[in-house]
Amino acid sequence: MDAERLARLVDQLAPALLAMARVRCHDAEDIVQQAFVALIKARVEPENHAAWLFGTVRKLALASQRAGVRRARREEKVARSESQAGPDPAGALDLERALEALDPDDRDLVLARTRGGLSFEEAGRLTGLSAATAWRRYQAAMELVRAKLEGWE
Amino acid sequence: MTPEEPHPLEGRLLKLPLPGLPAGWRDRVLFEAGRATGRRGRRPSGGLLLAGMVAGFISGSLLPTVFPVPGGSKVEGLQTRTAPETQVVATSPDNVTPEDRLAWETRRRILVDGVESIPVSTWVGLAEKPVSLDALIEEASR
Fold it and tell me: What are the pLDDT digits (tens) for B62-82?
């Protein structure tokens, strides 16, 4: 994989991967970086880079979470707002806020599907679900998101 | 609705922004990725191995001989004042602790393989073995 392609992948997927990892652990940036480095070091490229990256980041984030290293969400948000690039007006609705009511596994499904373009089979594999079950959970999660968006307006 | 049909909300979610990347993070990832690619497949050379062994030998054995510290030196006096209870204990293979072995093995790996052999992300704690980068690479290569 050449540098240009990697840069495109970082630009395209890193925000969603960071959002996925952040909900579980406070070292999201390290985890996502580790996943990209592992991808470029791989002898054989995975067929679907997005699916591999989402799966790897989820796995690393869960390992980190299980190790018992977590921070209060408020603390994370403060740190994030301090280190963020780009404008994020107070009170503006972003995808992370829209998804915050979801179960973490459902969040992963929605992020992987909407931002990674994963099929339901690939997204289901992330969370150990069949494609059909992943689709049903996705539908239910989207209804919760819809309610959240309507409440915001 | 079927799995093939896009959910009506998908287009709207796509338009919602996600928090931007932390400052400098993108460059750091690309730099680390480039560095990792540069090092892929590199094997420690015999020269590096020899240099490591020589460095270890010199620091462990020769320095006290080449630069002996006189009995009443200021350095020794300072050490005596700050840590009077310290005693030199001869180490035999029987009383080498697992921590000693780990420290020794880590130093040896750094000398032979370079600093990239230092374990990464040890902050996750000792309760669970961290997922290794090599394992991820293996998985990606399948």
Answer: 555 555 555 544 444 444 455
